[in-house]
Amino acid sequence: MKRRGPIIGILVLLAVLGGALLLALGPPNRLNLYLAQLLGNKERDHIVKRVIFKEHDFRLPAYVFAPRRSGTFPGVIFCPGNLPTGKDTALYVEFCRRLAGRGYIVLSYDMKGYGETKEVSNFDVSKDLDFVGDALAAVSYLDKLSIINKEKLSIIGHSSGGNIAFAAGAKDPRVRNIASLSPGDFDPRRRSPRAKIHYRNRLAIGLGYKMPMEYYDKVVTPLTMENYLPLDSSKRVLFSNAGLESRNQINFAKRIFEIIKVPKEFVMIEGAEHTYGARLIDGNKILDPAKIEELVNAIDSWLRSKE
Fold it and tell me: CATH classification of 41-304, choosing from 3.10.450.50, 3.90.79.10, 3.40.50.150, 3.40.50.1820?
């Protein structure tokens, strides 16, 4: 009986320390990432560091995933799609973690209005909601790191992030490799008024702000992939689709892929949905790691190929 006092005291201390840890790490999605790194990374083949870089006057939080060894490594910018959890979305964390374990420095960031950058009330939407500009700022940040092999800089994006990656990679001469994973058709000329409203409402879920429709074309036109063709001959391109995606989405990606004239590769992950084995409703659940592994293996193989 006499030992209960010290035991209770220890339990209370652990509870206090646990609460302090929660406060220090912040939102639950970020806590999930840090605990995964501290407790779940049994291979211990990579590390993660939280950084901040700037796009004009905006501070954009990011994660740098890096191999747990010394040397210089190929750099990869990862562009998230329009999801409220941004870089902390489970699919993106798992993808970047696995790619870093294969020997890449991977920068994944929050676009303005997503993840930790929720202060959209300060936006001048007509000029500040520039998703491609965010990606170009990420390229500049990663390019300055001394551990980056600057001759092998790549950019990868998923969903609308695939369009962003394609645009930024086409515009920036520092980028050699461009991978678009399940990109979408955002050409305003092909979208009905109803489709435009639907996408505006999807943006609002992430941004917490319903963009006035008069800004739609200005914000979305930079995501139109045809605008960046033809690509410079120095570029290499990979397109990926999930086998269970809509026929319209797959056909769109194949149509763009066919008119690209630089070295290119198309990968189909059969049996996967748009989320490649992850659940994006809450942003924090991996349902089928094998699909993400298959995707990462395909990208790793492509990045290591000569042409």
Answer: 3.40.50.1820
